[in-house]
Task: inverse folding
């Protein structure tokens, strides 16, 4: 994967490995694009599981615990993000767009 900066310089980024959910469950993040908050729906995601939101450069911008309420991202700048949820031996990674 390559990144082009505003000044035109390019650099190669490290490739990340994302493990597929071993239970093959369907996981939804909605609404996407996100204005202020979103929900995550999946059979095996439980309250109290930690999540990390990072921007496309990998910088962590928000952390928390999954609960029954929507996840608020109102403080994030518009752009592309990923949420990682740590679930037992799996890591679920979902992309979303903040408007």
Result:
């Amino acid at each position: 994967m390559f990144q082009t900066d505003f000044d035109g310089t390019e650099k190669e980024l490290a490739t990340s490995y994302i493990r597929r959910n071993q239970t093959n469950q369907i996981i939804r993040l909605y609404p996407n694009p996100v204005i202020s908050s979103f929900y995550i729906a999946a059979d095996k995601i439980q309250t109290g599981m930690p999540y990390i939101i990072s921007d496309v450069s990998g910088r962590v911008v928000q952390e928390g615990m999954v609960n029954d309420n929507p996840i608020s991202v109102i403080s994030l700048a518009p752009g592309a993000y990923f949420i990682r949820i740590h679930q037992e031996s799996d890591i679920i990674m979902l992309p979303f767009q903040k408007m």
